[in-house]
Design a protein that fits this description.
Chain lengths: 563, 176
């Protein structure tokens, strides 16, 4: 079977997977391969591992699964990667080609199921189609706007022998829709617009990291003296401690960042897609701003927000070519104004925002602050919900690929398996999982994978005994009727120990600090359960569909009329 | 407003599904769709008629162009184009009104394909509006069955055509 040789030639060192009937020929052939296989405990976990591996390293993540249920278990992982533009190749076994469509044992129409959640997929029925499909899949996953690609290979195609024609499988079709370099005249238009602005603002998205444009963005912003705000997946793409860094934007963003968007006269949207969690009501988003969108995916241009100038192309290329002609904008008044707005929300020290609400017991914001203070250089892999938003507010990510989180799809259960992938990609890095008590239970079986692979990963479970973000929305928008949001939980310390990890529990700030320090010093993987206030809410919050200026800063405020 | 998109694609299994899925997931309806191989057998050509506003059309085009199998998407709505639609229609008829039907067929250059004691089947190949007009003219006789191919379309040459342009073709270009 030529699959493994194809993967080796693509530079694959590790795959994540789970064997089963229809993929067994491939597993049988794996014996002779140099590729390392990580056995997940559920195919969803394997998919998130490949995703975390790709996000941490910038390389293509690879996941293997069998037909039917194995493949359908990948669906959430593929959709997560699709939404966040993560390069992934999924290889699934399929029933023998003569049985296709017959409802054979463990048969599912996998290319049909995954059609809308992959960049492309392949049904391979003959061995000589394997190499072209794999080569094109890798090329496509990496090129343009990255994303997941699935290759479904029938069992008979895995078994039949063929001669590998690597050169004959050279891919070209992935180049079809790659944009040509942005014409110089378009760059000049953008430069003119920048020159004419007084209140410019850069919105940095995931595209900054994906195109390797962090350094180019830093040079660009510094040279033009333009402040930078970040989307959730843009965090880390620009150094958080930099004087030009404004903060996290959107639904739970900092007030001055959201207000800056509403006051700006020029928005430079770099590799971001105006998600509804960022724009609020799109009709009232950045009403005074001329808008320039630099984006590699043409389908994103004008999708939500109409822009005045679209530069379709690679962000890094665009920034590097604009820089020689970039003059400083007279932004002193604007920058001073932004500083004033910031100062309105607390003293200038970094630790004053978000304000720590009076809490009943341990405050979750304090926990996240402690974690970050102790391990500022770690790779943080978060789950989805309140803790995810608090970390985005509190942690000052300053390097690309040090925050790994499911943004677009908001996939609970993502953090633990994604952290395993991230640790495989960056064995030298300190890797932390931050998850809620709800999300950690969605893929807690992967604790065993972590232990089996001998990985040193620390896990912070922020336990408030509730699905916190659901409960927060119920409190704010659904008459505080807490339908099905309360959780009975296992003893997380015992759970960790059952898997062969070390478990700790902290209910005070002092305990939290010592637990974090002990976990970092411990050579074994450690789970710390932080028992926190169940009533804490993430503030500010912009109600869904409201204007960016309609932030709710405190509990029990009436919902703005514009909602 | 109806729009005509010409989509050229790889001629391989599953492509129609991918194209249709792009519309389905956004709740866009496909009014008609014809597919056939081109002069290059590895490439298929689709004529897709859809009811979209300008903004949805722009995004539909962009989403189609994101598909690996799609070579190009051309919007013929706002350019001079040649559009043809084939219809087979079975009309109720009696021996008494048959001459009137034949007369209509002649006016619309429709072909009589079948004549029976109580019905007539005719075919017409014309611009969609002209097909509509024929159907309206036939309606009083009693329409029994209708089958339309959906539009096929081609862009008119940029240079002035050497041939005289029939009026209905110009109307098609504007109205469709």
């Amino acid at each position: 079977m030529i699959l493994w040789e194809c993967l080796e030639r693509e530079g694959v060192e590790v795959v994540f997977g789970y064997p089963g009937g229809a993929i067994l020929p491939a597993y049988h052939a794996m014996e002779n391969s140099s590729v390392r296989h990580v056995l997940a405990r559920h195919e969803q976990g394997a998919a998130h591992m490949a995703d975390g591996y790709a996000r941490a390293s910038g390389r293509v993540g690879v996941v293997l699964a069998t037909s039917g249920p194995g493949a359908t278990n990948l669906v959430t992982g593929l959709a997560t990667a699709m939404m966040d533009s993560v390069p992934l190749v999924a290889i699934t076994g399929q029933v023998t080609s003569s049985l296709l469509g017959s409802d054979a044992f463990q048969e599912v129409d996998v290319t049909g199921v995954t059609l809308p959640i992959t960049k492309h997929n392949y049904l391979v029925q003959r061995p000589e189609q394997i190499a072209p499909a794999i080569r094109e899949a890798f090329a496509l996953a990496r090129s343009g706007r990255p994303g997941p690609v699935l290759v479904d290979i029938t069992k008979d195609a895995q078994i039949a022998s063929t001669v590998l024609d690597w050169e004959g499988a050279f891919p070209t079709r992935h180049l079809r829709h790659l944009p040509a370099e942005v014409p110089k005249a378009e760059l000049d238009k953008a430069l003119d617009m920048i020159r004419a602005s007084h209140r410019p603002l850069i919105l940095a998205g995931h595209g900054v990291t994906l195109s390797g444009a962090s350094a180019a963005l830093l040079a660009f912003a510094e040279q033009a003296k333009i402040p930078v705000a970040a989307t959730l997946l843009g965090l880390g793409a620009f150094p958080a401690g930099h004087p030009l860094f404004l903060g996290f934007m959107g639904m739970h963003g900092s007030p001055w960042t959201n207000l800056a968007i509403q006051e700006a006269d020029l928005i430079l949207a770099f590799g971001m897609r105006f998600d509804d969690r960022v724009t609020g009501d799109p009709a009232t988003f950045a009403p005074h701003a001329t808008k320039i969108h630099v984006e590699i995916d043409r389908a994103e241009v004008g999708k939500i927000i109409n822009v005045d100038l679209a530069l379709q192309g690679d962000l890094r290329n665009v920034l590097e070519r604009m820089q020689p002609d970039l003059a400083p904008v007279p932004s002193e008044t604007w920058l001073a104004h932004l500083e004033e707005m910031k100062a309105d929300h607390g003293p200038k020290e970094a630790e004053s925002w978000p304000p720590m609400p009076t809490t009943n017991g341990l405050g979750p914001i304090e926990v996240l602050r402690t974690l970050f203070q102790e391990a500022p250089d770690a790779v943080w892999v978060t789950d989805v919900g309140q803790h995810q938003m608090w970390q985005a507010q509190v942690m000052r990510h300053s390097r690309p690929r040090t925050l790994i989180t499911s943004g677009g799809l908001g996939t609970m259960g993502f953090a633990l398996p994604a952290a395993i992938g991230a640790k495989m990609a960056c064995p030298e890095a300190e890797v932390w999982v931050v998850a809620g008590d709800g999300g950690i239970q969605m893929n807690s079986q992967e604790f065993m994978t972590l232990v089996q692979e001998g990985l040193k990963i620390n896990v912070a479970v922020i336990n408030n005994g509730t699905l916190g973000m659901v409960r927060q929305w119920q409190t704010l928008f659904y008459d505080d009727r807490r339908s099905a949001s309360g959780l009975a939980n296992p003893d997380f310390v015992l759970l960790a120990e059952a898997y062969g990890m070390k478990g700790m529990r902290a209910g005070t700030l002092a305990d939290s600090l010592s637990a974090v320090q002990a976990a970092r010093a411990c050579p074994e993987p450690v789970l710390i359960e932080f028992v926190v206030d169940p009533e804490a809410c993430v503030y500010p919050i912009i109600p869904s569909g409201a204007r960016l200026q309609d932030m709710m800063h405190e509990p029990n405020l009436p919902i703005p009329a514009s909602r | 407003m109806f729009r005509i998109l010409i989509v050229t694609t790889d001629n391989e299994p599953g492509v129609l599904d991918r194209v249709a899925s792009t519309f389905r997931r956004r709740g866009f309806n496909i009014h008609s769709l014809t597919v056939s191989p081109t002069l290059e057998p590895a490439i298929s050509r689709m004529t897709l008629v859809t009811d979209l506003n300008a903004n949805s059309k722009r995004s539909a085009k962009a989403f189609l162009e994101r598909l690996l199998n799609v070579h190009s998407v051309v919007d013929l709505t706002e350019v001079a184009s040649l559009v043809r639609d084939v219809a087979l229609v079975r009309v109720a008829s009696t021996t008494e009104n048959r001459p009137a039907l034949f007369q209509l067929a002649q006016i619309f250059t429709a072909e009589i394909l079948d004549v029976s004691t109580d019905s007539v089947v005719m075919s017409v190949c014309a611009g969609p509006e002209r097909v509509d007009a024929l159907l309206e003219a036939l309606r009083p006789f009693g329409l029994l069955e209708l089958c339309r191919s959906g539009a096929v379309a081609m862009q008119r040459a940029q240079t002035v055509s050497a041939l005289p342009v029939a009026t209905d073709e110009v109307e098609d270009a504007v109205s469709f």
